[in-house]
Structure formats: structure tokens, C-alpha cells
Design goal:
There is one protein chain. By secondary structure, this protein is mainly β. The protein has helices at about 170-175, 180-185; strands spanning about 1-5, 5-10, 15-20, 25-30, 45-50, 60-65, 75, 80-90, 90-95, 110-115, 120-125, 125-135, 145, 155-165, 195. Strands 2, 3, 5, 10, 11, 12, 14 and 15 form an eight-stranded antiparallel sheet that branches.
Length: about 200
């Protein structure tokens, strides 16, 4: 479900959704995209972003709810151009964060955050830019969002988003950068575990 002011725009691959600050795509946790997916299980979130950098400094690409100070959240910082994966480990914790300058205004960038339950890793345009030790987070998520609301809303286009319930190797991430459809066409079916396919006009 899309909430807030948005439009369809030219994407990296066909159409993309352009979110004005505060708009977001909201999904309920389900059997496949379950509420404890990011607690301790392997996972990968992949998305192409093209930010306008309107709005606040910290902007949510991915958001997990509920939580007074936030569950697992993937941020882009517009002032520094960095990416940050955060979650609840006792309190609000920076789990993995890149240096600045990896994301630029009005440019398409492929970003991936993932865990193999040993390490968190962030990839930018197919290259690993940051690695950190794994930490278990709270879990029990009920809602997932692309984009955010309030002072941490994301402004810009989002395309080809996908969530996997396993970690991906570097070759897979490079293939995924060519589009989810290409990735699915070459990936052995036995390796295709839970996924939430990319946004299209026709649905999710």
C-alpha cells in the first residue's frame, strides 16, 4: 500500500515510484516477510535509489515497526551521503555504517544491506563498502516500509526493491544490480528463498 504524496516516474528499469518526503510503501509482516526476519536470520535488502535530498538529514530507505526509537532501519544521510543500518540491541544501535560520499543527489545508486548472521555488510553499486560484526536485534516487527514519515522521510525515486531471506554473494549482488528480473532468470530455483519482488505499476 502506498501512503502519502507519490507518483510514477522513469526508473532504473522501466517505472519507479517517486516518493515525496513523508510518503512510503507499507507492507504488513507475513509468513514470508515475517516479523523476526531481521532479528537473527540471514537476509538481504536490495534497492535502487535516486534521492532528491529534500527533507531532514536522516532519511529512511527501509523501516521496520513498531518501536519507540525504531527497529531495523536503513538510512541514507543527505548531508554526508552515507548509508547506515540500525536496530534495537538493548537500545538504538548503529549496526553497520559506511563512510560519506557513497550516495549522491539525483543519481541512481544500487544499495544492498545484508547479514549472514556473522557479519553485516553494505554494498554500493556492487562493491562492499562496509562490514561489521553481527548483532541480534529485537525482532517482532509488524509493519515494513520503503520510505519513511515525519522528520526522517525519504524524498526521491525507488526502484527494483527486493528482500531475500538469505545472504547473497558478491557475484549475485552484481547480477542483482542489473535488475531483479535478470537475477531471477539466472538464479537456480533451489536458491530462491523468500523474496518480496520489485515495485511495478501493477502491484507488489
Amino acid at each position: 500500500m502506498i501512503k502519502g504524496d507519490s507518483k510514477w516516474d522513469k526508473g532504473k528499469f522501466g517505472d519507479a515510484i517517486h516518493l515525496n518526503v513523508g510518503a512510503h510503501v507499507e507492507m504488513q509482516a507475513s509468513d514470508t516477510l515475517h516479523g523476526d526476519l531481521f532479528k537473527s536470520d540471514p537476509f538481504a535488502i536490495s534497492v535502487w535509489i535516486n534521492p532528491t535530498f529534500e527533507g531532514g538529514a536522516w532519511q529512511q530507505i527501509w523501516r521496520s515497526l513498531p518501536g519507540a526509537s525504531g527497529h531495523n532501519t536503513f538510512f541514507v544521510n543527505k548531508d554526508q551521503g552515507l548509508l547506515s543500518w540500525r536496530g534495537q540491541v538493548g537500545g538504538w544501535t548503529v549496526l553497520c555504517q559506511t563512510d560519506g560520499g557513497v550516495v549522491k543527489k539525483d543519481e541512481w545508486t544500487h544499495v544492498v544491506v545484508q547479514s549472514d548472521s556473522k557479519k553485516f555488510r553494505i554494498y554500493v553499486n556492487g562493491k562492499m563498502t562496509k562490514e561489521s560484526d553481527f548483532q541480534e536485534t529485537r525482532g517482532a516487527n509488524a509493519i515494513y516500509r520503503l520510505g519513511g514519515e515525519g522528520g526522517e522521510g525519504y524524498g526521491g525515486a525507488i526502484d527494483d526493491a527486493a528482500v531475500f531471506s538469505r545472504a547473497l554473494d558478491e557475484a549475485e549482488i552484481k547480477t542483482l544490480g542489473n535488475g531483479v528480473e535478470e537475477f531471477l532468470s539466472v538464479e537456480p530455483q533451489g536458491k530462491l528463498t523468500t523474496r518480496w519482488a520489485h515495485i511495478k505499476r501493477s502491484g507488489f
